[in-house]
Specification:
CATH superfamily of the largest domain: MFS general substrate transporter like domains
CATH class of the largest domain: Mainly Alpha
CATH architecture of the largest domain: Up-down Bundle
Radius of gyration: 23 Å
Distance between the termini: 64 Å
Helix content: 55-70%
Number of strands: 0
CATH topology of the largest domain: Growth Hormone, Chain: A
């Protein structure tokens, strides 16, 4: 019977005295786990010599189809990275398909399903590694795990926006910050686990998958079971909706994608992500190719002239650059989303896309191969706006379409992310490979890429200007919300620091602090 299942939405309505600041740690607990999707590259090199251990067993002429089922040949990195592509394609598709279901059943049930899918997928991938079957890795982490990614990613959005109508950007920024921070924690942890489990007969990856899956399951279930939705009619104590929002409307899920506003915001997100995700993926080799020996105190040597030791030293510096980008990616999700509460979402995207276009079109070409510190700063700011674009978009949707179906609408919008995850890397890698093949010096390879990415953001800036209030014909019939006694009681408690809140934030804050510390250690090589 509906409503009797302890996972149902009706069973998650907050009771008297509930502190709304308990909800963001629940969202962070889930996002920090699924955010490890960004850190899966830590597994590629070990898996590329899973059979040969010391030296990979290379089978000449092996096709991708053969790689899926071979048990005698080591996989190529190019075979393994398809898992990464599957992550984000399936994430967008799952969020779009099941976003409406999530709104009906509530965040708790969606979070539980996400935990089983993400962690169960890692378990299947562990079996795939153990028996050396790539198709099981694709099925487990790529397809099933991708479903967990999609549901876990959007599970807190609608709930947080309804708990924090006064701070929409801040609330969603706190949660989505966790997705950017997942790799900061998961990558160094996975590296340590693989070293612990490595032996003369194995690289320690399948054991690492199982340990991570077990830990993630505990965290994700705790987050999902901790979710609470506000009672009907809830408003924070002491807060009055602005006059412009006094007669707030909602747009039905079935109608949202029929409005130009949806496709304009969809396109802005697509272009913003495409302009960053590809270049971030080649951040380490880009820095090494552009600055060559300058990175290791040998300005006269070009990247193509490095010996083995110089390559190793330069790769360490490149990893430091990736560490800085990761820190700004996670920090930008909080900073830019919180800023949107002060200046508005449309203004925020205008600032980010215009600034990004200028940084790509002017700063990056000017500082490439000449000014290391300024070049790093340029891409640190770009990375912060990449994260900020993700974090602020749920609040942008709530401003535009109302809060009733914002989680499901956000799920459909994430198909832009899936497409950008294909378009951006293909553009960057395609131009880079073509110019290298044409004999262009490495320090000059990236200039047209920067101009192309600047053009994408300039187009996003223009499209954002056309976002207007949704026409009245799309407004749902107004519903009069009658605050329940529970709403009045919860509304009287604005939320503050108490023991439960402190413990909840410590549970997610300590891992984040450790991940940031590890990233800072990696990035410190750039200032030595």
């Amino acid at each position: 019977m509906a409503g009797n299942d302890w996972l149902d939405r009706e069973r998650t309505v907050a009771g008297p005295g509930f502190n709304r600041w308990l909800v963001p740690p629940c969202a962070l607990a889930i996002h920090l786990c699924i955010g490890m999707a960004y850190g899966f590259s830590v597994f590629w090199l070990p898996l590329a010599h899973a059979i040969g251990i010391g030296e990979p067993v290379v089978c000449k002429g092996m096709s991708l189809a053969t790689a899926l089922t071979t048990t005698t040949c080591d996989w190529r990195v190019s075979d393994l990275v398809w898992t990464y592509t599957l992550f984000f394609v399936v994430l967008g598709a799952a969020a779009a398909v099941w976003g409406g279901w999530l709104e009906r059943v509530g965040p708790r049930k969606a979070g539980v399903v996400a935990a089983f899918a993400w962690c169960g997928g890692m378990g299947i991938a562990a079996i795939g590694v153990a028996v050396h079957q790539l198709w099981l890795i694709w099925l487990g982490s790529g397809l099933i795990g991708g479903i967990g990614l999609g549901l876990g990613y959007i599970s807190p959005v609608s709930t947080l926006i309804k708990w924090f109508p006064d701070r929409r950007g801040l609330a969603t920024g706190m949660a989505i910050m966790g997705f950017g921070g997942g790799a900061l924690i998961g990558s160094p942890l996975a590296d340590r686990l693989m070293k612990h489990f490595a032996s003369a007969t194995g690289v320690g990856v399948w054991q690492t998958f199982l340990v991570l899956a077990a830990g993630y399951f505990v965290y994700m279930m705790a987050g999902a079971l901790g979710y609470r939705v506000p009672p009907e009619g809830y408003v924070p104590a002491g807060w009055t909706a602005p006059a412009t929002a006094a007669s707030r409307f909602d747009v039905a899920l079935a109608d949202a994608h029929r409005t130009p506003q949806f496709w304009l915001i969809w396109s802005v997100l697509l272009l913003n992500v495409a302009a960053s995700i590809g270049i971030i993926g080649v951040a380490s080799p880009m820095l090494q190719e552009l600055f060559g020996g300058r990175l290791i105190g040998d300005a006269a040597t070009l990247f193509t002239g490095f010996d083995a030791e110089q390559k190793k030293a330069a790769a360490t510096v490149g990893a430091g650059f990736v560490g800085i980008i990761s820190l700004f990616n996670i920090g930008g999700r909080f900073f830019w989303a919180a800023l949107s509460d002060a200046i508005g979402r449309k203004a925020l995207y205008a600032v980010m896309t215009a600034l990004g276009a200028l940084l790509y079109g002017l700063a990056a070409p000017a500082f490439a191969a000449t000014a290391l510190a300024l070049f790093i700063l340029t891409f640190a700011v770009i990375a912060s706006m990449y994260g900020g674009g993700f974090a602020a978009v749920p609040a942008y949707l709530a401003d535009t379409f109302g809060t009733k179906y914002v989680g499901a609408i956000h799920g459909r919008l994430l198909t832009a992310w899936s497409l950008a995850g294909i378009v951006g890397p293909l553009f960057v890698a395609g131009v880079r490979d073509a110019r290298i093949a044409a004999g262009v010096p490495r320090e000059a390879v990236y200039t047209p890429i920067y101009y192309g990415l600047a053009a994408l953001l300039a187009l996003a800036f223009v499209l954002n200007l056309f976002v207007r209030p949704v026409a009245a014909k799309w407004h749902m019939a107004a519903e009069t919300a009658v605050p329940s006694p529970a709403a009045a009681t919860v509304a009287g408690h604005t939320g503050g620091l108490d023991l439960r809140v402190a413990l909840a934030w410590a549970a997610v804050g300590v891992p984040i602090a450790w991940g940031v510390y590890m990233a800072v250690l990696k990035a410190a090589v750039l200032v030595r």
